[in-house]
Amino acid sequence: MLKEMALSELLQELSSKSAAPGGGTVAGLAGALSAVMVSMVCNLTIGKKKYVQSEDEMKKDLDHASKLREEFILLADKDAEVFSEVMEAYRLPHENEEQKIERTRAVEEATKRAALVPMDVLRRCGVLSGLSRSVALKGNENSISDAGVAAIMAYAAAQSASLNILINLSTINDEDFKGKLKSEQEHVLKTVKDTTEETLHIVQQKL
C-alpha cells in the first residue's frame, strides 16, 4: 500500500527495474498532489474575515478535495494491481489451441481493466481541475501560486493517465470498447486542458 510507504521508499520503488508501480501509479500520485494543494488553499482561506463570503464554498471544495486525495491514492495502488493481472494473463500456458484461446481472452479482459483504472483517474482530474479554478477565483490570494500548482498537477495527472489509457487500448481487440473509451479520454483531457489554461490565466492576473 502506497499510504504505508515512506516517500524515499516509494521513489526507490518507482525507479527500480520493476514495471510496476510505474506511470499509472505516478498519474494517481500527481492527482493526489493536486488535491492536497487545493486543500491547502482552502485551509488558508477558511476563517479569514476577508474571505467570509466564499467560506462555505471553500469548505465544500476542501471536503471534495480531501475525498479525491484518498481516491487518487487508492487508484495509484489499483493501477499496479491491474498491471500485475495483465502480466499474469500473458504467463498463461498457450501450447494448444484451447489454451491459446483462453490466454487471449484473459489478456483482453485484464487489459480492459488496466485501461479503466487510468480512466477513473482522468475522470477525477476533470473534477479536480474545476476545484483548482474555484480556489484560484475565490481562495486566499496570498496562496494564488498554490492554486496554480494545483491546476498544473491536475493537468499533469490527466495527461499521464491518458497515456496509460492509450497504451492499453493499443493492444485491445474490442473496437467498440476502444472507441468509447478513447472518445471519453479525448473529451475529458480537453476539458482539463481548457480549465487549466483558464485557471492559469486567473493566477497570472492575480500575481
Could you walk me through the main structural features you see in this protein, from its secondary elements to its overall organization?
The longest helix is centred in the middle third of the chain and has 42 residues, at 97-138. With 207 residues, this protein is mainly α. It is 81% helix and 0% strand. Helix 2 (23-45) runs antiparallel to helix 3, helix 4 (97-138) runs antiparallel to helix 5 and helix 5 runs antiparallel to helix 6.
Overall number of structural domains? 1
Query: Could you name the ranges where pLDDT drops below 50 across 5 or more consecutive residues?
Result: none
Question: What's the number of extended β-strand segments?
Answer: 0
Specify the helix fraction band: over 70%
What is the averaged pLDDT score? 93
The Rg value, from CA coordinates, equals 19 Å
Relative strand content? under 5%
SSE map:
Layout lengths: L6 H9 L7 H23 L9 H36 L6 H42 L5 H26 L5 H32 L1
Features:
207 residues, mainly alpha, Four Helix Bundle (Hemerythrin (Met), subunit A)
Quick structural gist:
This protein has 207 residues and is mainly α. It has helices spanning 7-15, 23-45, 55-90, 97-138, 144-169, 175-206.
